[in-house]
Amino acid sequence: MVEWTDSERAIITSIFSNLDYEEIGRKSLCRCLIVYPWTQRYFGGFGNLYNAETILCNPLIAAHGTKILHGLDRALKNMDDIKNTYAELSLLHSDKLHVDPDNFRLLADCLTVVIAAKMGPAFTVDTQVAWQKFLSVVVSALGRQYH
Ligand code: HEM
């Protein structure tokens, strides 16, 4: 079981309370699709992913980015049981969508880059430590139902 200090909880809560889900979700998913183009294979039904420009202004991708952030805030609301919180979502990504679990880490890194760029100097070392820990727990929980 993952233990969280009061300070880690405060940092994670504060990141979410200042988060623009639409902006950060869209930018993170777009960045993932552009920087790691093989991740595009799962989004065949999402319209035009021809190049960086079309990805960045694709409304279906933007909407899915927002959906991912709403998925992420389930972990915030259930910090002491992230593993079970994601059991179903993990099953969906493995059995139904066949998403390679390595990709969770890639998207997580894009989220970190986008949030750090947005927060600027407020993204301190302590912030990064807590945020990275939070995302590692999410990534591991999402990967749990793979076998
Ligand atoms: C932090 C990591 C991630 C979270 C929190 C997350 C969350 C979600 C959520 C909430 C849904 C909607 C589930 C539903 O409709 O019930 C979803 C669907 C989906 N996810 Fe993820 N996801 C993550 C990573 C990824 C990655 C890395 C990929 C592929 C590279 C991916 C591909 C998909 C696809 C293809 C769908 C179905 C989209 C559709 O057809 O509507 N996800 N994800």
UniProtKB/TrEMBL annotation:
Residues 3-147 form the Globin domain. One of its GO terms (biological process) is hydrogen peroxide catabolic process. One of its GO terms (cellular component) is haptoglobin-hemoglobin complex. SUPFAM superfamilies: Globin-like (SSF46458). InterPro entries: Globin (IPR000971), Globin-like_sf (IPR009050), Globin/Proto (IPR012292), Hemoglobin_b (IPR002337), Hemoglobin_oxygen_transport (IPR050056). It comes from Gadus morhua. Signal peptide: none annotated. Keywords: Heme, Iron, Metal-binding, Oxygen transport, Transport. The gene is HbB4. PROSITE patterns: GLOBIN (PS01033). Gene3D superfamilies: Globins. CDD domains: Hb-beta-like. This is Hemoglobin beta 4.
